[in-house]
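User: Hi! Is it possible to get a structure for several chains at once, not just one? Here's what I have:
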Amino acid sequence: MTAVGPAAASPSAAALRAAFGRAVRRHEVTCGDTIVYVDPARVHDVLAWLRDTPGQGYDYLVDLTAVEYRDVERPLQVVWNLRALARAEDLRVKAELAKDGPLEVPSCTDLWRGADWLEREVFDMFGVRFTGHPDLRRLLMWESYTEGYPLRKDFPLRGHFSRAEQTRQALGGPAEKHYSLEELSIAEAMHYLPADMRERLAEGHHGEVE
Amino acid sequence: MSTRTVEFELATPGLDAAGRPVRVPLGVAVGGGEELGGEHMLVNIGPQHPATHGVLRLVVELEGETVKRVIPHIGYLHSGFEKLGEYRHYNQIVPLTDRTDYLSPMANNVGFALAAEKLMGIEVTERCRVLRVIACEMSRIISHLVWLGTTGIDLGAFTPFLWAFNEREKVYNLQEAWTGARLTTSLTRVGGLMADIPEGWDKGLAEFCGHLPRVLDEIETMFSRNAIWIGRTQGVGAMSAADAVNYSLSGPMLRASGVAFDVRKDKPYLGYEEYDFDVPVGEYGDMYDRYAVRIEEMRQSNRILQQALARLRPGPINVDDPRVVLPPKSRAMSDMESMIHHFKQVMEGVRPPVGEAYLAVENPKGELGTYLVSDGTAKPVRWRIRPPSLINLAALPKLCEGALLSDVIAINASVDIVMGEIDR
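Assistant: Yes, the chains can be modeled jointly so their relative placement is included. Here is the combined structure:
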């Protein structure tokens, strides 16, 4: 196991500060891991720099997630866990988003294709929007889910709706609810739908339950 | 309508004078074939389909039988484990980890306990480390055996499935003898284990280790040079090393593509650096390489198990730390200080300091990461599971590009997914 103690920060933290100046807000070491806090607007530049700069080489996105603290004053954090595979060295990058502002960070799907579903999951669970994501849909909850973002601290453990309402919404709704519009447009599948379903889709009723 | 003519082509037009179905020669288009060309078809597979290994739903766009696009839909088994964890003490989360990757529950238990111990700065005892290595490697073997058996069935081979499950049953018996449960083992606690192995248990494991290589030989005889197996797996669902890294693949999926990264070797935990084992790496990144890598991993796990058995020495399994481990019952009833520790732990739970920790372990499916954030209370602010099979599954659309419909089932099997972990 990693020894816990006053371990030194990863040299990447100082290198980042030299390259990005005040966009790198601070860094800390906890349980032997280095965390670098960066300006949300510059996240994409920082991640691209970490991936492509010789000597850094963080070529592997281990994980992408978000953290919301119980203290309502604290900002929501989006967390990128990076790894330089050749050195087997990890670096954690965080961006803090104030809860009263827009929950938005740039998408890094163009850097790592593996970020696609991870960003969708953070959007699904926390409501953080990743600008530039090609297909930002809910991942684990269904697309017409209307109760909110389950991993937010203001979301009750059992959900906002009653069990009866949840069941009604899960079982109710038209058949097209289970396909995305994109899928229905494939292969002119729209053509095979009954006329009433096509009308509902044309009116933009996709997947909604009254 | 063109669809109707196709139906006639495949069915029989009627019975002949003797009452037998009239055969239609194959490959003769009755008409309307050219109308079908160029038209894409939408096929829905799952979520209730045995070949999707759980409740995975795939919407497949087909041109003829060639896959144009695969759109996976997940979440049918979503149980909100991470949300539940925020309302549980650390030791109460252990039973939830059983139910994520339910094909290797013991390895999940170990992954969670190690992360909590990293957060608290606890070093477990030597005997506990060796027993945890045994738990992890047993899990790897049974998980790969399930993978082997079910993938064989998906490609039409039934017999090796029975052989694999026969061996897996022996490990389940060992797990039951150790923890009292076959699947929901809840083996670990922060700072140790829920129980030591019973007397004579190591002999049972040694017997299993002696027998496993022979079973693997038999399975390899059935697969490795089998023309059908080779035809269905070589060159199918291939991924280059650069793509595998870009898609954040891990575990056998990453290594089959030629990237020699194994958490046990590169970021060792539980003293894996002291064991002698090899990390198999593939060359082409196709299904066959994934099969070969997993077979070899089982042999290497067997080696580790034998070394661990040789290293097993008597000693305590729990750390001597009243913050995390319950005092012996006899002391809790006779000694005031122990009773207070007992009371505080049961009522309040383990309290890590403010901070956060990410710890990765090499699970059978890939890198299982546990990310814990603590605000100093007995319940985590955030318990994040980095689910290896979710991230591996996300590459499925890429793996299936240009494949045939029947290959989608095969490629999906080769990813080795478990929906309990993907949906959490």
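The longest helix of chain B spans residues 126-154. The domain at 81-423 of chain B is CATH 1.10.645.10 (Cytochrome-c3 Hydrogenase; chain B).

User: Great, thank you!
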